[in-house]
Amino acid sequence: DARVTQTPRHKVTEMGQEVTMRCQPILGHNTVFWYRQTMMQGLELLAYFRNRAPLDDSGMPKDRFSAEMPDATLATLKIQPSEPRDSAVYFCASGSSGDYYNEQFFGPGTRLTVL
Amino acid sequence: AQSVSQHNHHVILSEAASLELGCNYSYGGTVNLFWYVQYPGQHLQLLLKYFSGDPLVKGIKGFEAEFIKSKFSFNLRKPSVQWSDTAEYFCAVNARGSSASKIIFGSGTRLSIRP
Questions:
Q1: Which residues of B are less than 8 Å from A109 in CB distance?
Q2: pLDDT in tens, B16-36
């Protein structure tokens, strides 16, 4: 049963600390998406990649957030320094650009709390 | 630019009531349409999708949606809801065939079912 995995599932940290979230897309998928979900803003697209290249990161605060794909099996989202307003659930999703229908499969999310 | 509107932010129903959640999109071309469901504390899961063919799409758990092209709508329905349908429901759209295109999500509708 192929799934997107994310680690950690929960993270509590103090303001100013660096946070790194990891995502393993479904094997064979070549597109990866990072979303942030909060009660106030709902689901926001932060960044997405195709074949490990960033295609759009306009939704991401550039001064503190960075997203990378070191290899095809790993995507990372880093926040440095973290702030309380970054508290949210961060979801990773993957898909296949060879799939005409562009369906996305979501991971379980990382619940981040910044104190 | 594509956009998705879900006008009902919070819907409260009693068990066995019928459900219809509205979804309208704006895009001039051919689209793929999705409904995702997020149960409390969980990640988004695909409920159903429309790509082509019969505009009445049946999904899991007794849900269905009807694509009405002339109205740019893709409303979600269920004839008789259960307490376990309590969740947040997201309508989403993307442009047909564009590789690695973003899926644009609506703001979500929270469904609460009274036992």
A1: 43
A2: 999 999 999 998 778 889 999
